[in-house]
DNA sequence: AATAATATATGATATTTGTCATACACTTCG
DNA sequence: CGAAGTGTATGACAAATATCATATATTATT
């Protein structure tokens, strides 16, 4: 079993604030596992008894909406921690987590996290800072969802994907989602999304090759997002 | 100056987890003030050096959207704490706070909050629990904003207002907002909102008298929110 | 390789929502 | 009291978006 003290991944999350003893203790009780693309880490309503540290791969956090569509709220990628909110507030998770590519994750039991949270104020401040950041972001997204039209929201989603996953050698965003999934991020009908994607393509904002999308001009997409025509 | 140890309001927020010494210390350095309806507590981008404890009245938290409209994200009312996110994560606030009726608030300096946060784990857990709850709620709202149509969102907003402010003797929701403000909660044009309000009125879901709104049937409004026609 | 299943694309049309114009109601303030 | 300003309401129309139908492409399965 790999040792947390030597794991670089922890440096990317609030786990960086843990001291050596804490890391050794966690090493002893954590479990590692592989999650294949499409597999479910947890579902809306589940209670987690620990947090996941994402060593590789990514998952989507989704919520089933009132009208039966799966909305992708955000993606969790390599280096991120998953499930802190639920563990700390001792509530069920409100989102489902599904792998969007093959993942490698470590599971750290609840008790370890909570004891560090209570005893190591540097760690607790870090954790809270993360959650606060998420809250701020979520409020911003709420406003965008409420006030922007579908075209603007698609621009936002493309920028978010680009930001989160980066580009491959050819400049394509390093994640492949179905049109239905993207529609579920934007909050629109799949057909509408497809039309808008090809519109963006025709206008030279993006290049589409199957499921792969390349942003031609970040600036132009940003202008669309800001409603600058 | 009133004493925090004797103040009942603190029982409604995470401040309930503070011990007597902490409360006495806060009593000595807190300031109280009255904020008149329409006055601004802080604006998007400000740095707060403390948190507000709302002793009476309410304020709206708004954000200016890309298209220039003021979106009301939520209301903060009697008993709530305001500004913890910004203080703990040491970032500027992302929302503006404007009184929607006359308020009485106490201001607790940053240092007091942070020292209790670091030393009193019961308090820090409470604070984080609150922020986690807000995060969960915010994600839920995001999904609703993205997936529901204007009619459903209006139903949600009415239920939220009813929940947050309660009813007066005649059954009207105990807050008076302009049509423009409600439109800014729902994320729609003011004219569309006005039309929909009168549609709700004609269908007997609500009763409207000037700025005062009465929900006739919570159940029916809930059905609208759920898209059950 | 052929077939089935699924995803993507596009047209036609209905519905929803936004915009602009205008009218009316209500407040405020000199 | 009356004028000016603001908020609310409504009609007419335009634009955005959803829905349904269907075609075509892509992937999976045998």
UniProtKB/TrEMBL annotation, chains A, B:
The protein's GO terms of the molecular function aspect are: DNA binding; DNA-binding transcription factor activity; kinase activity
Gene3D superfamilies assigned: Jelly Rolls, Winged helix-like DNA-binding domain superfamily/Winged helix DNA-binding domain
Q: Which UniProt keywords are present, listed alphabetically?
A: DNA-binding, Kinase, Transcription, Transcription regulation, Transferase
Residues forming the HTH crp-type domain are: 148-219
The record's section on InterPro entries has: cNMP-bd_dom, cNMP-bd_dom_sf, Env_Response_Regulators, HTH_CRP, RmlC-like_jellyroll, WH-like_DNA-bd_sf, WH_DNA-bd_sf
UniProt keyword annotation of Lipid metabolism present: no
This protein is called: cAMP-binding domain of CRP or a regulatory subunit of cAMP-dependent protein kinases
Name the source organism.
Pustulibacterium marinum
